[in-house]
């Protein structure tokens, strides 16, 4: 884990999230805070307010009437869900300028959104609650690779190439070549940002969810499902074949069943294009 922390420290652009996010976090951490307090904090930042209202009014959320104020958004969605949307929009804006030479950023963020949608859809199917928490976890789950390709691009690419050539798990090769894997680096970044511990635990545990802290195993299992499904979908695998890729423990921990894969895939693919546009309008369509 020390090597992962060293990598994160090496990128100045990622030193901290925008001030407005930390203010939002402070409101949620204060038991005496109200909807009005949260709305006041968000409204001070015009860019975050615009992105929040844009997301809330999208077809993805499917609200019956237009939301034109932050206070109404908070009253409809709830404080936790607004927090999660603010976090997602803050991260998407923060990474806008980063583009490691050896990484296709359009593909990276497209896949990150797919992981987010799969994790959220899976959580919704098992009624896990706090759905946007799973969306944010999925969106951030591969940030470790972005850090790796920024700090150690040659070794990160070498690990990827060797994994493809040999069939060995990528995380094993990353540990050998870089001293840590993408899950550890992602968790170190989340810890540096002082995000909720549950988020970091899920990201850290996504490779082997059964070994994660018991409180966070479902979250980690959803991220494991999202990662494997996204990679397999990119290879044009059929849903039945994708379902066979998972260890039985993933179904036990997540509460899902192999038969759910096709439905999760359909819903995620249906929403993917719109959500990419919502959070990453700067991206050019892949192709």
TrEMBL record:
Highest rank taxon of the organism: Bacteria
SUPFAM superfamilies registered for this protein in UniProt: HD-domain/PDEase-like
HDOD domain boundaries: 14-209
Protein name from the UniProt record: HDOD domain-containing protein
